[in-house]
Amino acid sequence: MIRIRPFATALLAATLLGATALAADAPRDRSRINGSISIGPGERAGDVETVNGSIKLGARAEIMDAETVNGSINADDGVRAKSLEVVNGSVRVGKGAQISGNVETVNGAVEIGPDRSVGGNVENVNGRLTLRGARVAGNLETVRGDIEPADGTRIEGDLVVEKPSMSMSWG
């Protein structure tokens, strides 16, 4: 027979309740197949994902990753995020925003203005990369896009322009 003392029972219950409270406070993920997602000003969320729709991050919102396939991401002033990724659409980063990881788009423009910080790379395949006084800790990369860095822009990594592969194979 296992005998648990009252103090040990109370400690175990408090630990389990504390873990449940922490899980309840954790920001929840938001996802949708068709339709846009909006995170309100000052709101917290986990990952924000949609397939056919845009993502709007209100001023001072805090999220993990934002991803969309067909749509844009608009991160207002003071947003904090780990990464912003788009396949077909643009990314705009507001004043004072901090992105700790990468900002990426395949087919679309990226606009990052003054007093913004990207801790990783800024990348695209097709589209304009516009940086006006922003700080990019990683690389600035494109394949077929235009790069427009303005005065005050600081790129701490490399400037990478890949030559598109034009080889064709006829089987």
Low-confidence blocks of residues: 1-23
Sheet with most strands: strand arrangement? 1-3-5-8-11-14-17-20
Q: Give the biggest beta sheet.
A: 8 strands, parallel
The amount of beta strand, in percent, is 35-45%
Spatial extent as radius of gyration = 21 Å
* Approximate helicity band: 10-25%
List keywords for this structure.
171 residues; mainly beta; eight-stranded parallel beta sheet; 42% strand; globular
Description of the molecule:
By secondary structure, this protein is mainly β. The protein has one helix at residues 6-25; strands at 30-34, 37-39, 48-52, 55-57, 65-70, 73-75, 80-81, 83-88, 91-93, 98-99, 103-107, 110-112, 117-118, 122-126, 128-131, 135-136, 140-142, 146-149, 154-155, 159-161. It starts with 5 loop residues before the first helix and ends in a 10-residue tail after the last strand. Residues 1-23 have low confidence and may be disordered.
